[in-house]
Q: What sequence folds into this?
């Protein structure tokens, strides 16, 4: 187990190193030169270090993805890669210096990870096409086996940061200024007002009445106090929305899209109510030059309050996501038009506007005309990248379709469980086929095995800043968790454990084979069996407690799950991990679902909230546990108490007891009822007595 311990020590070292600035000097090795090269100190926005030859020639730039783009991994923890590009837009090399990815902490060989990152050398980012997960090797290195999602995150961090550095450093032919999307700074409400980052239009009731052609008895009181801001620049967006809110909104848009914040107080609502039906806000629209941009309900988020110090309390606040494809240019003036809700009167149109122009301090001036320009930066800047999770979902659309069909079938089985289990042979064949599909497709092909690591990631996201895009990076895992969350409300935690867990189905199917070849099963006394349940709950609480101190240490302890070894990496790991997984599977040959019963921390994590389930759909007869123990003996995980009660914390909802419930050849109650309905044979008459 020395490799496990060394991996843990390495992980702790990486975590400690992530707190310090990345050492960009390692980038010197990325430049092929007969003479030594010099990596200077990082400077500028975004920060990057000039790399120069011995004669002073500028060769390119070195940068840290964490410093440039704030890169985070699939687990929501910092991910830092040092990379370098030439002035022509060619990646010269990359190396990962800090990460907290569970699959990479223990599991993936360091050589495989280093080779993947190093293979970005020579990649040309000038064509401007964003690198998508579905692209072949000519568009980038193959993903690391067993870590596809993390590989995609690493790839996106390198290329997104490289394009940002190239765009900011290399002269371009475009002479127009561009929006500063990198500078970080927090401002108070008064500071935002002073520099013109937030604009206001106060419309009195008298002005509104005049435009509407009506009269108002209190003309000086406000009709609507309207506020407008371009929230794309980090100083404006983070000040108004807070860091978490700003990051959440930026995670929903591409790199060239924009955010516009609108807030108001007073009698009149800028939203109205018609948008709930039409999907478009009919009272407001953006106008820029001759272009009118409608604001869609799907591209807006309601905000409860402004975060800037000293900000007023507004009646309604919303952030609108403005797509680059709409033609909106954040560097140019624009106007927000508000329809007051009536036809134009003699006093003028019943529409008021609020003009906005981003302050000059948020614009980056173009290079002087004498500066030589190259097409690299303009090509990179012209490319609007979609969020990486959207590319991942598109590349896995067929797998998503198969999973969607599987979940639909499972939902039908659960809703119609009485009909399904009433036909015993059909139920057993259906369940066996479904388990095979779960094992082969979800497990071996799609690697969609849920883990207690997902639970830890979710809990820590709630504590440190929830970002939807992190959970959207793996579409199958996201869809599975969504289904599991809903199913727990109706049926409890057993739906996942019994039907959608690849390792669980592997145990059950292997046990069925063991029974067929005559392997004798071990019956654990219920008293001991009940006490062994505690192990998995203690395990989950321990992992959760450790994660509050060190998430990497928790990931290491989470290796109690054999999922990564068996399903994700298909036993292609160091021998201690393989031996552990095979030992659990071997125990499962004698005690059905041995791991599920006593050791699974994920099952324990799901059992705790699953107690809130709304329905109890498993049927029982009064004889169950009193006169008959067939279901208790045949239960897959021995979740039925000797007195007949089903423990919902342990039940995996396999429905085997329900098949017995409807089986007249098995169920004692049905046998007794059949006997009562069977008419007694007519009495036979006695033969006449023989006379003597």
A:
């Amino acid at each position: 187990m020395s490799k496990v311990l060394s991996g843990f020590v390495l992980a702790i070292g990486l975590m400690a190193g992530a707190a310090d600035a990345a050492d960009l000097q390692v980038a010197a090795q990325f430049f092929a030169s007969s003479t030594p090269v010099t990596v200077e100190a990082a400077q500028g926005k975004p920060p990057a270090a000039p790399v120069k030859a011995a004669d002073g020639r500028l060769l390119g730039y070195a940068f840290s993805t964490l410093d440039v783009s704030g890169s985070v991994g699939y687990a929501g923890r910092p991910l830092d890669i040092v990379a370098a590009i030439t002035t022509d837009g060619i990646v010269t090399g990359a190396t990962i210096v800090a990460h907290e990815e569970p699959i990479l902490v223990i599991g993936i060989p360091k050589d495989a990870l280093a080779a993947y990152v190093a293979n970005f050398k020579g990649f040309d980012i000038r064509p401007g096409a964003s690198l998508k997960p579905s692209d072949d090797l000519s568009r980038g290195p193959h993903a690391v086996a067993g870590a596809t999602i993390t590989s995609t995150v690493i790839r996106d961090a390198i290329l997104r940061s490289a394009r940002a550095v190239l765009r900011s450093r290399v002269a371009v032919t475009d002479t127009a200024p561009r929006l500063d999307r990198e500078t970080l700074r927090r401002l108070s409400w008064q500071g935002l007002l002073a520099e013109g980052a937030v604009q206001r239009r106060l419309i009195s009731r008298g002005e509104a009445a005049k435009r509407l052609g009506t009269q108002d008895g209190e003309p000086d009181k406000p009709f609507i106090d309207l506020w407008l801001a371009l929230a794309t620049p980090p100083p404006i967006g983070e000040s108004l929305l807070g860091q978490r809110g700003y990051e959440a909104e930026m995670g929903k848009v591409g790199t060239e899209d924009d955010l516009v914040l609108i807030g108001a107080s007073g009698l009149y609502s800028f939203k109205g109510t018609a948008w709930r039906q039409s999907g478009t806000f009919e009272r407001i629209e953006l106008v820029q030059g001759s272009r009118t941009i409608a604001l869609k309900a799907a591209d807006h988020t309601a905000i409860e309050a402004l975060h800037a110090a000293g900000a007023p309390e507004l009646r309604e606040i919303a952030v609108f996501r403005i797509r680059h494809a709409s033609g909106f240019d954040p560097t140019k003036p624009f106007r927000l038009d508000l329809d007051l809700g009536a036809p134009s009167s003699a006093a003028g149109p019943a529409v008021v506007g609020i003009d906005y122009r981003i302050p000059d301090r948020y614009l980056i001036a173009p290079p002087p005309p004498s500066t030589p320009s190259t097409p690299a930066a303009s090509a990179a800047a012209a490319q609007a990248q979609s969020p990486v999770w959207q590319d991942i979902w598109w590349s896995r659309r067929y797998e998503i379709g198969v999973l969607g069909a599987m979940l639909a079938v499972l939902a039908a089985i659960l809703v119609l469980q009485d009909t399904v289990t009433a036909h015993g042979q059909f139920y057993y064949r259906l369940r066996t086929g479904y388990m095979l599909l779960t094992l082969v497709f979800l497990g071996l092909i799609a690697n969609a095995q849920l883990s207690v690591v997902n639970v830890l990631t979710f809990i820590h996201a709630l504590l440190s800043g929830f970002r939807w895009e992190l959970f959207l990076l793996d579409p199958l895992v996201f869809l599975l968790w969504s289904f599991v969350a809903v199913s727990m409300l109706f049926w409890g935690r057993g739906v996942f454990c019994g039907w959608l867990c690849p390792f669980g189905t592997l145990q059950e199917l292997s046990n069925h084979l063991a029974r067929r070849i005559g392997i004798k099963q071990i019956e654990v006394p219920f008293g001991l069996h009940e006490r062994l349940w505690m192990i998995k709950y203690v395990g989950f609480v321990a992992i959760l407690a450790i994660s509050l101190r060190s998430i990497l240490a928790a990931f290491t302890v989470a290796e109690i799950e054999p999922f990564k070894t068996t399903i994700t990496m298909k036993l292609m790991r160091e021998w201690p991990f393989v031996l552990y997984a095979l030992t659990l599977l071997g125990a499962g040959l004698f005690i059905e679902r041995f791991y599920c019963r006593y050791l699974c921390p994920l099952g324990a994590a799901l059992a705790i909230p699953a107690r809130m389930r709304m329905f109890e759909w498993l049927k029982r007869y009064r004889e169950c546990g009193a006169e008959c123990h067939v279901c208790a003996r045949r239960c897959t995980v021995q979740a039925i108490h000797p007195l007949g009660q089903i423990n919902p914390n342990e039940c995996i909802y396999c429905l085997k007891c329900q098949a017995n419930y409807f089986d007249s050849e098995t169920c004692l109650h049905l046998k007794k009822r059949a006997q009562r309905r069977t008419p007694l044979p007519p009495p036979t008459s006695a033969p006449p007595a023989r006379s003597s």
About this structure: The radius of gyration is 32 Å. The first strand starts at residue 38 and ends at 39.
